[in-house]
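thought: fold this chain, then report.
action: predict
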Amino acid sequence: MKHLIKLIVVVVLTGMVGCDYLDVVPNDTATLDHAFSNRSVTEKFLRTCYSHLPDPTNPFYYPAYFTSRDEFDFGFEVRSLQTVAGMISEGLQNTDNPLQNYWLGEQGGKSLYVAIRDCNIFLENIHIPQDVPPVERARWIAEVKFLKAYYHFFLMQLYGPIVLVKENLPLSASPEEVKTYREPVDECVDYIVELLDDAILDLPPTIPDPTREQGRISQTIALAVKAKVLAWAASPLFNGNPDYKEWTDNRGKQLVSDTYDPAKWERAAAAIKEAIETCHAVGLKLYEFNKNTSPQTFNMNDTLVQMMTIRKAITEDMERNPGMIWASPEISAPGKGTGAATPSWLGDFLRSIFPIMYSTDYPSGVGGHCASWHMVNLFYTNNGVPMEEDKYFDYANRFQLRRATPGDHHQSYIATGEITVNMHFNREPRFYADLCFDRGFMELSTTTADGGASFGPYLRFRHGEVFQYLSSYMPKKLVAFETTCSQGDHAKRYLPHYYMFPLIRLADLYLLYSEALNEVKEQPDAEVYEWIDRVREKAGLDGVRTSWARASINPDKPYTKEGMREIIQKERLIELAFEGQRFWDVRRWKIADKFWTLPPTRWVFSRNPEEYYVPEVYYHRERTVTVKDYLYPISLLDIRINPNLVQTYGW
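observation:
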């Protein structure tokens, strides 16, 4: 808390540290009056409030990527283990100097309490400028209330019970007043929802001027975040979690209830429904690629069109993507604009996940990060059920070799005449759209012939070929079809296509609604199936009941609450793969122990396919997952300074 106390004092003296308006106001007159003296400088402060948004494309500092190594892996960049994310993946999170510290803003984390402080400064002083029109003033206030709520929510996802900073403390605050408490999660949820409800009243349904204002907050975004807040409140981590029964502070307050409350799922379902209905009312719908209306003309077959529907749901420009609710503004690049906040990592992130296609002489930073080997097991078969449940899929012999023959369905996915393993055949479209693998195609506008009618070079990942990856797979899903990659001077001819990285998609809400309804009802019904089936339809799959009845060894699974819960969870893991959602979901479901302990695995380094296609654990680590790993710790220094702060349970 020492850091927080110091920052509160700085607020009153200077308004903020490092704010854009200091570039135009002389240092000796940088006061709150100047910071809010007119519309121009006030808008700069508004942008500062946005600037604290965590960057979802920073794989080392954003929590959702390399802290577990079950979705992404480090590829050949073994030195990445020395990053804060790498150390967390090794089980090295600690209380002396917490990693990815979003509480204080250290070890790769932004201080979201500084962000909240700036939001409070804005809300306390927005009345000062006289040249801000009333409607615009109301919108700005609503945006900052949303941001204040979101920063509290982000902290709650990481730490559970948090300090609620409803307003900044004055300089005259006594030592006892600054010794704040972590409040119970239920109180945190209610306060966050209250802020969001206030914000929603004055936010526009959609962004009025997408060209200039992309990245700003709308009603649909605020409603979607509210839905996610209440889904977190209803989920097993915070709803009747017996692990936290003894977690109390010195007031005797229990910080997470150990009593399950079904009404929390009802409240969540109502909020999700409202968010979906509002999205529909403003024209949002699940994305579907139409080659005839695309800015470029592509002569694609139906298979590639289906793959573009899956990939472009992520990478399509916002103006043509009705399935995107909220996305992080794109990076500054030649010919690109900037939004309210500008992530600095997107270009590096896109380079790091791009597969080397032509030459071992690749530019620095390309191909350094992979999809975890374990992700290959996640996706369904082409019958729409898990590999191990499909009675028509030879799961026991999934590692046996098979040659792709001419004329079969897989000629659109795997190079004809080439040898790969059985489990690369007969998989659902998302498997081929999401993953790069040995002898599979990498569909790009510059590598397909006739604008996509025929496929370009296939990927060669074996030892001594173009390039070898430790985990053997790459996340194709995040690489835009428009990315440039040409044979020759690879260092100059690889150019990532920038886009706005997804934070919340409509598919996310649909699956969340199925989840909430399944928890509310005694057993699943047509309403539960409807929303998950809409997502599956866009992925090229039949509905849940049809797929399980036709192909599963457990055909009755969709008809039980527990079975449907498992199906919905797996559907979320597949549909939202590589989008920074898995980390949050497995924590709120309390199933992280099933994934975070998986050993880093790869195919063997060999040129011979018989020797290559053998899974091996290439790095042994002692990662265990216990109750403490579901939430981040706070610093021991904070607790020594402020004895009212109780440490995160288990730490």
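thought: worth noting. The beta strands are 72-73, 324-328, 370-371, 401-403, 419-421, 435-436, 474-475, 501-505, 601-603, 615-617.
final: tokens above.
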